[in-house]
């Protein structure tokens, strides 16, 4: 048989062998290919961090937690306590906020009596006898604080009822002047008390506290007196509020509980205690009273159950029970009646009904029934007033308020109706004292709260607003980045790393818009976070302004005000502003002593002397005279009549000028000596001087110059030490006078000053070599020896002194942050947190504040000094965007203004604003006039698209995100006729129509792309309608000044009889619709919608998402996630979508998002986040881009405190965030992240963690949980699913604060099961803020374990970054490093760096 030699492919390789003729002519054997092996299931964790807290305020309580001298109020929500102080201008100023309770606040009460009015009266009398007459208007809350009393500490205590604990909270002042919270936890011992705090009451004198569940059990605490508690705190800072407690069961369900007033506190009658309890049993409402004397034992008082008295069931259940201060009476309010109840201790109670003036429901009421009375408050009065008279404010939910004056004999003496207060009123309602009246503080229900001034015989006047953007139902990201990151299919495409770095520096962060509120107060809000600057004055000038300076007036009268000196392009201007900003006048040259004919370059205020430097003159103005010097005479030594001054700077009495002379730049230094400037130094420089500064560093006076060398080299910072005994003496005196920080200088820096050697620092930090030569320094400031340099390319450099003997370097660039694409200018900011310096950065991207961090070790890595965006807000126009600020100037030299008041230049506007001390959410409101129910952003139209429901009627609207203007122009298309303007487009404008979903649809047909909007509606509860809408921009000029409108009309529709729609999604070919238990795919054929595919689901769908134009992710109400393939041949042939995968768990799905493309790994995969109605978030995994396993794997489960209503992915971090992914971060872009919105207005960030990083962060969390610094109950929601929880929970309450030092126990917490893969970033934030590592890493074994875990994720290099390529898995088995002080500090520093990186703000 013939044979040949040939190459054949066998066993996955090419081989040469002999083959026969039969083998050549025989048919090929079937090839049996083995299916590719599925990758192993990864171990991913999830880090959650709250980036915006819920704004909901449940309680508003006047409380003196600091002392009786402060007029404070507490705003309490589900998770936070915020203390505000009422200022002299009736503004509420934030003092402190506490959010780390770790459990929901179920109820809130105030213990003790308020003593503010009596304290204010004593202060007024003291000032009267000391200074003479006192103006009552000046007897403001802030004025009373001017007489401190060291013995005057907390006057009242805030009592918070949590899930299993009672917290007694007050405040004390630290040595540094900060106010801190002091808390005492008391565990609720009655285990049968279900939902403790559902009802809560405290006796008028604060002697007894009663808590009740929603069932048949209550507990009474006997408390120490406030005098005793203050004595305990003064003696040993230890307070024990509870003396005794007793639990009592009764028949029936408790519906209300209150302590009644038996007499004025301090009198004999006040020793009698009466506890009123209302119950329902067998549909019978009863009123029972438990009464006892204070000296009587609780066991005797509560020994027997009181049967009580039967109430009239026809009156209904009580909504409010208001205890009155006269004769043990109270007001009972039901839905349809009001009455004063008396004689409750002498037999059957006597009810005296009364009626209030009828007021129809206001526009702020949404219900279909009559509005209800929801809250009450008692205005502050002196104690003697309440002997026979009481005063009550009653609030109705639609904003109406009624003031009742009640006397013991005659009942209702007067009733005054006022309002409405232009907001919805829930339970948050309180009254504070102001001169000549009261201030009503309203927390708001489903709209922003407000403050109102109530003065006798006048209508209430609105003073301010309290932010509240809940409920939030939907959100969208306005992103310029998405234009460059989306592929043709609409899915974010994977771009090269170089592009990702470019976008971090160039593109602005995504903006977050959400649907907020209901009814008349509905709005689209832009969620922002940072430092708020409240605008008090907005001045418009005819020409653009370069800079401004605030200088004092020498007029001694109180009406004198101050001056604002403006630097214009070719001249200067001087404005006079009154102290209350009510009058602004411009002065001309012949009226003032300043030089207004040339541009001002620098201004210096020295006690009673003002120095102005312009391009032509140096002017010295004082109360005794004016001295003016020609600049040309001062620089005549250059012998150049054409010499030009380009820049000037002054530090106290030292002046430096940048002069262009003989085609070169020179720096001339002068010193002010008796109203004359004496030349001191002439410095030759190479290149152009682009920035100039004079500062006193630790070793002497220096001139700092930013030099541009052009094509010959990068921008350079040159430091010139100045040798002059007079200069050194003057600078030393000035530094001592101004408390200039002096820090230790490295020996080489001291040597530089000793030799007076100039130092060059090359600033070649640009990532693009082509732009390095055109970059330049714009501004220079110093904080001690640290220098901050503003650059032309938008960067801000931080330069630190070093002592490197090997390289000979004296300074190094410690940090580089980019703030925008235009020039960044730096200015010295205010002192924050009492000690930390700050820097203000002006850029086209907005104003920012850098809070300088303390050095963490030998060398600060410099990446995480806290940087906050500064948002300018106008209370009168909350829809305005924050303007771009060009320059800032402090008003600290002006009497009556502190370090927080600044003048800001924005183009041709001057804004005087007050910077708030702490970062907070700063929402921007775009009012809609109705309830917004869905939102999209159209890049083509550059508009926000939303559904607005007004009086039950839905309509489609388009809003300009820049101005907030409504651009909507609905029309009706007519055949062969012009469009007709209509109020509503077809199939809208009917109260029977309910909009289910709003979708955008990019439809592709025959190479053409159509951009439509799709409305899914429900008609009369049993019919569905699909409405397709077209829209286009048009030029228009309206009466409101709008220059453009969006014209839109109904394109076509489809009706579904007896099939109400639930949800939908779109792709380029069709629309997916969810009906009942079915999902269908509809496409357009011959200009009609036809059903192309369908699939029967196990339960109704709640959310649809198209992935990769191939798969449909369907989240169901009861069966979690179902993945369907709608593009395969089997689906097209059968007309039914093919099940690709599903979640085997039965969960109540709410929303989902595909996050697999965000993970920075080589193998494609799917990672889907799903949220549930039970506050859970689950991570589901599938191995490949086109491979789905029959059942999705659950990688992690996170239990949150609220349900995530919607997930989004966006690049929300600001430009200054470091763009490189570090420490093994899985996200492809550091600025990108997954955000989740809850209906309560909170926003949570989700970060996917690698296994090594999860082990490290989980271990730190375990140490925080085990520490004595965090109360056990605050972490119960994390620990409740762990094996060790029952062991700790069964121990005695006295041992519930403990340390778990056994590594074996901590290993149990680190087992890689889905329920353990969640890391709570809020607890790690506590560890970072309180610098807890030295206290929680308490043993050598714990330190060694921490070092081993760090090794897996952190390898420090010369630039301080971590590569994430550590050895092993970080399980703690590596040999520990020798324990020295240096290694311990290095371990802590590296750990803090990682925490700062992962916990950095996402907004």
| Spatial shape | globular
Instruction: Kindly report the average pLDDT value.
Output: 83
Helix and strand content put the structural class at: mainly beta
Helix fraction? Answer: 10-25%
Strand content: 35-45%
> Please, how many helices?
20
What is the CA-CA span between the terminal residues?
80 Å
Taking all Cα atoms into account, the compactness measure Rg is: 36 Å
Could you describe the 3D structure shown?
The strands form 21 sheets. Strands 35, 56, 57, 58, 59, 60, 61, 62 and 63 form a nine-stranded mixed sheet that branches. The chain has a six-stranded mixed sheet with strand order 69-68-73-72-71-70, with no helix packed on it. The protein has a five-stranded mixed sheet with strand order 86-87-88-3-89. It is 12% helix and 42% strand. The chain contains 20 helices and 89 strands. The chain is mainly beta. The chain is globular and about 105 Å long. Helix 13 (1251-1266) runs antiparallel to helix 19 (1340-1353) and helix 17 packs across helix 20 (1381-1399).
Features:
single chain, 1403 residues, mainly beta, nine-stranded mixed sheet, six-stranded mixed sheet, 42% strand
Short description:
With 1403 residues, this protein is mostly beta strands. The chain is built from 20 helices and 89 strands. The strands form 21 sheets. Strands 35, 56, 57, 58, 59, 60, 61, 62 and 63 form a 9-stranded mixed sheet that branches. Strands 69-68-73-72-71-70 form a 6-stranded mixed sheet, with no helix packed on it.
Task: Outline the fold blueprint.
Layout: E1 3-10, E2 13-20, H1 21-25, E3 45-52, E4 59-62, E5 72-76, E6 81-86, E7 92-98, E8 107-111, H2 116-131, H3 141-144, E9 157-161, E10 165-173, E11 179-187, E12 199-202, E13 208-212, E14 217-223, H4 226-236, E15 242-249, E16 253-260, E17 272-281, E18 284-293, H5 298-301, E19 309-310, E20 320-323, E21 330-333, E22 338-342, E23 350-353, E24 373-377, E25 389-396, E26 401-407, E27 411-418, E28 429-434, E29 437-442, E30 449-455, E31 461-466, E32 472-478, H6 482-485, H7 497-506, E33 511-516, E34 523-527, E35 529-540, E36 547-552, E37 562-567, E38 572-577, E39 584-587, E40 600-606, E41 609-614, E42 617-622, E43 625-630, H8 631-634, E44 644-651, E45 654-661, E46 664-672, E47 677-684, E48 688-697, E49 700-708, E50 716-721, H9 725-737, H10 747-755, E51 759-762, H11 769-772, E52 777-783, E53 786-791, E54 795-801, E55 811-818, E56 825-828, E57 838-842, E58 847-851, E59 866-873, E60 887-890, E61 901-906, E62 909-915, E63 920-921, E64 924-927, E65 931-938, E66 943-950, E67 953-959, E68 968-972, E69 980-981, ...
Parallel strand pairs: 3-89, 35-59, 68-73
Antiparallel strand pairs: 1-2, 3-88, 4-5, 5-6, 6-7, 8-9, 9-10, 10-11, 12-13, 13-14, 14-15, 16-17, 17-18, 18-19, 20-21, 21-22, 22-23, 24-25, 25-26, 26-27, 28-29, 29-30, 30-31, 32-33, 33-34, 34-64, 35-62, 35-63, 36-37, 37-38, 38-39, 40-41, 41-42, 42-43, 44-45, 45-46, 46-47, 48-49, 49-50, 50-51, ...
Helix pairs in contact: 13-19, 17-20, 19-20
